[in-house]
Design a protein that fits this description.
By secondary structure, the chain is mainly β. It is 6% helix and 48% strand.
Amino acid sequence: MNAIQQLILPKASDVGFPVQRLLPAAERQSVGPFVFFDHMGPARFAREGTAGDVRPHPHIGLATVTYLYSGAMMHRDSLGYVQQIEPGAINLMAAGRGIVHSERVPADIRVDQAAVQGIQIWLALPAESEEMEPAFYHYPADALPVFQEDGVSLRVLIGNGFGLQSPVITYMPTLQADIELAAGATLELPPDYPERGIYLSEGQLAVDGIPMDAGLAVLAPDRTVCLTARAPARLMLVGGAPLDGKRYVYWNFVGRSRERIEQAKADWAGGRFTPVPGETEFIPAPWR
């Protein structure tokens, strides 16, 4: 059996800055609890103005995870949290029954013309947490465990893997790891989670000897897979338990029923979400 079950190629999009979107895809909605996966940038923004800023917008039924390779972003939300995220750190925001947040480019990043690049992910919340009270968590880079050996540098961002345990909160079995491989280095991925995927952020890879030059490779279950860097490579490993049922994804909303999505749409259009303190802008409803 081929080690690569599916290969999902990115689709270019622009959400105020350039992104490569891997999930959701026509051929697959999710890998484990991961229902949304964007590679943001790299992008530099004008020294003046608001290019790259994402105005306040709502979420339900999911947890957002932001992880940067370079640059910085400033998070603000309707719970009152204000937190700059920098490379190697994790911002996790559990939307639950509903939250609003903005993400803006800090002034010094604009002035210095620093490139902003990173990974933005949504995790579907399990049924029992879907309507939880919203919450926000920040984990600095030095709180996340790292393994380095024989050309492999690996940081476990979420979950338990490779003998390392991340402190990041989880709502169902989840694994996310940032992996860098020197040319010729190898890494074995054990079948610790039912669903796994490898995203090639940069470089060239072989998956059980199969060349991979781009995209998100969904791996075959129940087998150890060997990764070999054909050139220096950076990867994002994602995975976990399968979703506990179908999810509907519309705009910034994730839900187990169309009715819940419609309620969230009506609440945003009707101004019933709690606003972000100090913010006067918002993204208007994209539906009529």
